[in-house]
Every structure is written in C-alpha cells, then in structure tokens.
C-alpha cells in the first residue's frame, strides 16, 4: 500500500458525459501528479500540482482539468468524454516538486466510456 | 527533452534463471532513473532509483540496475527469477532540473515459467 488513495476504482459512463476522479496523496506529500495509461499511448503524464498550484503540464486535453485543494487532495475532471478517453488514470504523490523525488502511485481509476 | 526506450516488449524466463530487462535513456541533463513494476490490476510500485550516487543500484525483491553513462543504459537484472516476478516493468526517466514529470518507457512484460 503506497498511501495514495484514489476513488472511484471503476467508472463506467457514456460519451459526452463529465466525470470527476479524486486522489488523496500520502500524508506529508505536497505534490500530486496525474497520469493516463492506455493501450495505444502507454503511460503519459498529464499534469502536476504542488501545494495547490499548477507546476507542470503534459499531454492533457483541453477537455480535462485538475485542481488541488487546500487539504492537498486533488481532482481530475474529464468532460465531453469520448470513447478514446477510456483508460486507467493514476494519481501519484511526492514530497518535493522537482527532480529526483520518487513518486508513489495510487491504485488507479479505470474509466470506461461507452 | 528526455525519453526512454525499453528494448524488449516481452521477456520470458524459467523460474530460477537470471532476468535481464534492457533500457536505454536519453536526457539533456543528468537524469534520475527509476524502475517501476506493475502487477496485473495493480498500481505501480517503485523497484529502485538512480540519482547520481552509486552507479549500481539495489532495489527491492533482489532486483538491481547499473547506470552506464557511456552506453546511456540502465538495465534491470535479478540473479534468479521467481514466479511472483511475473509483471510489467517500466523504465522511467526524470530530469534533475525539471519539475517532477516522469517519462515512461513502453514497458516490458516479464513471464516466468515454472
């Protein structure tokens, strides 16, 4: 158990809908990262927050947004869902925001868009 | 820019024989390198990390990796495979000077035969 929690574990929804994925980092970690794992794209970095502020953006679609709240939990919002958004979404956390700090991953949320 | 290439998409070994999973990296700056493992329907677990200290890094469960700058490689090895090692392994790079974005290789699926 990494100490990172993600809810829900599974999510099934329809095209055009909007969903929210939630992540609670390990106790004491200030940075939260979101990753998407799909069969065709592999594991890709989406976005990073550090202590409530956005720090880095990766291949995140404009239909997707995220935020980190004062209690450091984070939410990833996915809207106007398409079939291709079906994937495993991981949250990770670390203490620092830069460099060589290892990241601890949650169990993931499996999103299925029908 | 940074990237990793995992040279084998699948590796198959017999229980008790050595394991070698190959990884080459590319990074503009001194990289941090990691190996993560993902068991079926599980999250990602850190096996080991290299952060410019010793070039031979020991990780959990008997795994180790050697950083070779001249070859830009970071291969993962284990002297004797166990059935429980069957999983997908990811070689990962992060730049020391960049925010904590992790760049993942495409993964190597390790199969262990009895």
Question: Any overview of this molecule?
Answer:
Chain A contains no helices and eleven strands. Chain A has strands at 5-7, 10-13, 19-24, 31-38, 42-50, 53-57, 64-68, 74-78, 87-94, 104-105, 109-113. In chain A, strands 2, 4, 5, 6, 9, 10 and 11 form a seven-stranded mixed beta sheet that branches. The relative contact order of chain A is 0.34. Chain B starts with a strand and ends with a strand. In chain B, strands 2, 5, 6, 10, 11 and 12 form a six-stranded mixed beta sheet that branches. Chain B is built from no helices and twelve strands. With 114 residues, chain B is mostly beta strands. Chain B is globular and about 45 Å long. The interface between A and B is medium-sized, with 30 and 26 residues.
Briefly summarize what is shown.
By secondary structure, chain A is mainly β. Chain A has strands spanning 5-7, 10-13, 19-24, 31-38, 42-50, 53-57, 64-68, 74-78, 87-94, 104-105, 109-113. In chain B, the strands form three sheets. In chain B, strands 2, 5, 6, 10, 11 and 12 form a six-stranded mixed sheet that branches. A four-stranded antiparallel sheet of chain B has the order 3-9-8-7, with no helix packed on it.
From the structure above, extract its key features:
heterodimer, A: 114 residues, mainly beta, four-stranded antiparallel beta sheet, globular, B: 114 residues, six-stranded mixed beta sheet
Helix content of chain B: under 10%
Q: What is the first-to-last residue Cα distance of chain A?
A: 31 Å
SS elements, strand count of chain B: 12
Number of strands of chain A: 11
Uncertain segments of chain B are none
**Largest sheet data of chain B:** 6 strands, mixed
Pairing-aware structural class of the strands and helices of chain B? Answer: mainly beta
Order of helices and strands of chain A: EEEEEEEEEEE
What pair of chains forms the biggest interface? A-B, 30 and 26 residues
* Cα-atom radius of gyration of chain B: 13 Å
Q: Provide the structure class of chain A.
A: mainly beta
Distance from N terminus to C terminus of chain B (CA atoms, Å) equals 41 Å
pLDDT averaged residue by residue of chain B: 91
Number of helices of chain B: 0
Q: In oligomeric terms, what are we looking at?
A: heterodimer
Proportion of strand residues of chain A: over 45%
Listing every helix as H and every strand as E from the N terminus to the C terminus, the arrangement of chain B reads: EEEEEEEEEEEE
